[in-house]
Amino acid sequence: MRIGFIGAGNIGSTLARLSVGAGHHVVLSNSRGPDTLADLVARLGPAASAATPAEAAAGSDLVVVTIPLGAYRDVPAAELAGAVVADTTNHYPDRDGRIAGLDDGTTTSSELLARHLPGARLVKAFNTIWSEHLATHGQPAGSPGRRALPVAGDDAAAKAVVAGLIDEVGFDVVDAGPLTEGRRFEPGTPAYDVRLDAGQLRRALADADR
Ligand SMILES: NC(=O)c1ccc[n+]([C@@H]2O[C@H](COP(=O)([O-])OP(=O)(O)OC[C@H]3O[C@@H](n4cnc5c(N)ncnc54)[C@H](OP(=O)(O)O)[C@@H]3O)[C@@H](O)[C@H]2O)c1
């Protein structure tokens, strides 16, 4: 499939490389323009190209939004109506600033992005794993103790698309439920940035006190 990336930093470039390895085409974008991605595209080979965020969003089978949350209003909304979107973002107030609704737990970062993207089929994914572990912890399906990653979203078909990619790049998947349940694997929860297999991850999600 064609996977668009809005953001090509630690997580975006790592997931793009793994996606190319799994046989997908990737279209990368950032805030500074396609020219600044030439070296990365060259390293990834012929299955990779660079574009603007709007171009990466339009016509992709899956779009990965992987930018600092503070920039979420820049994500092109019209192009993402109806699209399957994987949201890797986390809220780090020191980096992203204070955002109303997140401090008091009224909402979650993924619900905030979903509100900005009407019609997008948003799945919270890949936010719990450090990029270096994303690059190194993957194992073939069926490996004992295989690390599992959580997903949350309101659209079952969209979750299946994202879960398929997670499996292809080396991880089991645990469905945490609807998008609002993404609060169970935000920063500071037992599931965040810890190597857990599927059974352990289910327990960690259940233990989250939010
Ligand atoms: N690092 C991790 O291990 C990790 C793990 C899980 C989740 N996350 C989360 O995933 C997100 C990305 O993290 P990261 O570490 O990959 O970030 P990063 O290395 O700082 O890269 C951010 C990327 O987003 C692009 N970007 C910034 N503002 C943009 C905008 N307005 N429009 C389009 N692209 C924009 C940047 O492009 P320019 O350089 O051109 O601005 C850059 O390519 C964050 O929300 C982070 O909290 C990170």
TrEMBL record:
- Keywords, alphabetical: Oxidoreductase
The Pyrroline-5-carboxylate reductase catalytic N-terminal domain covers 2-91
Output one GO MF annotation: oxidoreductase activity
| Transmembrane stretches, start-end | none
Pfam families assigned: F420_oxidored
Looking up SUPFAM superfamilies in the UniProt record yields: NAD(P)-binding Rossmann-fold domains
List the PANTHER family hit by this protein, alphabetically: DUDULIN-RELATED, REDUCTASE
Please give the name of this protein: Pyrroline-5-carboxylate reductase catalytic N-terminal domain-containing protein
Say which species the protein is native to: Geodermatophilus pulveris
